[in-house]
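# step 3/5: fold
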Amino acid sequence: MLFILLNVSCTNNGVETNNEAKDGQLDSSSIQKDDTLNFNLTDSIASLYSGIWINDTYLKKVEDSSSVYKNREFNGILFGFGLDKQEVIQGEAVIYGFTQHEGGLEVPIKWYDNLHCFTSNGQIEEYSAIQTPMDVVVIQSNIIEFQFESSHLETYRKVEDDNTVLREILFEGSYIDSLGNEYHLASNGNAIGFEYLNHYSVLYDFGEGLYFDAIFMTVNSDSDHEKIYHYQIANDTLRLFEVTGEFPEYEIGNLSYELIKQKNG
């Protein structure tokens, strides 16, 4: 698939970026020139900006540690946010931000054609969740940066949704146990080999007695939680321990599965 990237040169707030795409380049001349914003951005640019974005530093730490719980104390500006394509294409949009626990964090932004990027500079509203002016710049097809005048950067990765990317980082693949039984965990939540449990999700909002890495396994994506497992990942070995008890006192119980991830999985 050919990713067409916006060649941005966003110099507002003293931050300058000039990135060319590896697989292609979107000619900024395709944007209609009109400082009054009486125009629509191209569909290609709107597609680059719109979608769900999760803090890239957080995702890298989860990948490096094979643990969500170890990275529960998030210290970034926003854990993640969404941008609506229909708003983006009109040149004025709202960053719909959220933490691991709640949403409702809004930041208004506007496209400035001379900067070739969105910015909140001059758009700071009383309700804005980020009061420091920033430029919002597409660096790669799946990477956005918040660029602040202090040269501080916050980097975000485009994802399908928060749980899908965590499943992809931690679990996606085929496994085998010591008896030769085969298992599969997919990034879309499908699970194979776990008896009647065919779907799983990753805990990332910790509380209600669950203060350790855990996955919820269910009959399907619409059913309530059937079983909770604490997971430990060491190299290519995945161990799942049954979680016993009930709210507010859960305990990590016996080892239920010890699985080896297959190289081609």
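# step 4/5: annotate
Confidence is low (pLDDT under 50) at residues 1-9, 11-38.
# step 5/5: archive (pending)
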